Amino acid sequence: MSEESLVLRMSIKTDHRHLYLQVIDRLKKDIQEGVYKEKEKLPSEADLAKKLGVSRSTLREALRILEDENVIVRRHGVGTFVNSKPPFTSGIEQLNSVTKMIEKAGMKPGTIFLGSSSKTATEDDIKRFSCSFDDEFILIERVRTADGDPVVYCLDKIPKKVFPENISYKDGSIFHMLESDGGKRITHAVSDIEPLGYHEKISPILKCDSNTALLVLKQLHYNEVDEPILYSVNYFRADKFKFHVLRKRVY
Fold first, then answer.
1. Contact 235, 205 (CB under 8 A)
2. Is the pLDDT of residue 191 over 80?
3. For helices 56-68 and 45-52, what crossing angle results, to 10°?
4. What is the pLDDT of residues 8-28, one digit of tens each?
5. CA pair distance 7, 34, nearest whole angstrom
6. Would you tell me which CATH number, out of the four given (3.40.50.10860, 3.40.50.720, 3.40.1410.10, 2.30.29.30), belongs to the domain 88-244?
7. Residues 128 and 183 sit within 8 Å (Cβ to Cβ)
8. What distance in Å separates the CA atoms of residue 7 and residue 207, rounded to the nearest whole number?
9. DSSP string, 41-77
């Protein structure tokens, strides 16, 4: 038995939690300390179970939970790999522009402008903005980059009546554009976040492989007087972005 296995077995004697929970903690610790690096393939189940001094069924349960937590990724017929840590993190309760999120990570934000068009209101627009079928919207399609790499595909929809005239919206933050050129300051938003697998159009644009998922953030943004002024659908690379939320217990 290896020294590492012996240490784990000794610690198990004083730890009354289930074995698989102890294995989870051990593997997380090894990843944090660089024993297993990002994108590195882990040893086979047989070798890893032997090294940790546990059964393969215990190891499989630990790996299942680690995969659910996005710590590792298992690829059928290939092996188990350590997931990369997303460089961009934000509390979902914090309303930050994509530009600010990229800058916060110490990277340079950029924009690839794909196009814009004028559209008449849809039934969903009428519900969101309390408008009529005669109202028009500006639809802007862009890709946001970090140090030149595409990381977010953005669709922004703005009522034409609040859209600033003679402004450039091809670069930078839509938030900043609406405030500086249109006098519309976004203060809060109602958000929905959904996981999405490979998307035939968007995944290639973001240079995602078949194993890279997307996080879709749909948001209706309001100003200080609760006027809806922007609806956005942003597709984030799940390997680049992580959102978290502070939840408080209700008594």
1. no
2. yes
3. 110
4. 554 554 566 788 899 999 999
5. 19
6. 3.40.1410.10
7. no
8. 43
9. BPPPHHHHHHHHTS-HHHHHHHHHHHHHTTSEEEETT
